[in-house]
Amino acid sequence: MTDHATADHTDTAQTSDLTGSCLCGAVTINISETPKRIGLCHCLDCRKHHGAAFYAAAVFEREQVDVGGTTHSYQGRHFCPTCGSSVYAISGAEIEVHLGALDRANQWRPNYELWCKNREDWLGDIAKCVRWQENRPAQH
Ligand SMILES: [Zn+2]
Ligand SMILES: [Zn+2]
């Protein structure tokens, strides 16, 4: 455990083979690495893409995640063409795996939040989560 959350540290050290998929199962995800960071995003693009009040994803180097099946994409956001589930996003050399696509809950805790100026008022505080009003400051 770290006693302070930063953008590039994960709260949990354990790694296990994790699987995920879209709702119909045609697109699959296999992960055997620890995420670089786990973030929530409240920006309007993420909200609209997911149809959800916020976006949650674990970020990896692209080659650290095995993706099976065929996706369609819109502005780097990849979804299953059959069932429409949004499974992951590609941003530069990174892949953002949506926490909701994982087969098991409670694998990782978010350690940062972006675009908090759009954050829902009813959403409670999340422990050890750094908040930014807009984008994450450039740091790797
Ligand atoms: Zn599907
Ligand atoms: Zn966003």
Automatic annotation (TrEMBL):
Q: Which stretches make up the CENP-V/GFA domain?
A: 18-113
- What PANTHER family does the database record attribute to this sequence? CENP-V_GFA DOMAIN-CONTAINING PROTEIN-RELATED (PTHR33337:SF40), GFA DOMAIN-CONTAINING PROTEIN (PTHR33337)
Any Pfam family hit: GFA
Q: What is this protein called?
A: CENP-V/GFA domain-containing protein
For this UniProt record, give its keywords in alphabetical order, as a comma-separated list.
Answer: Lyase, Metal-binding, Zinc
The record's listing under InterPro entries reads: CENP-V/GFA (IPR006913), Mss4-like_sf (IPR011057)
Q: Name one GO molecular function term.
A: carbon-sulfur lyase activity
Q: Where in the sequence is the signal peptide annotated?
A: none
Q: Which domain of life is it from?
A: Bacteria
**Similarity remark:** Belongs to the Gfa family.
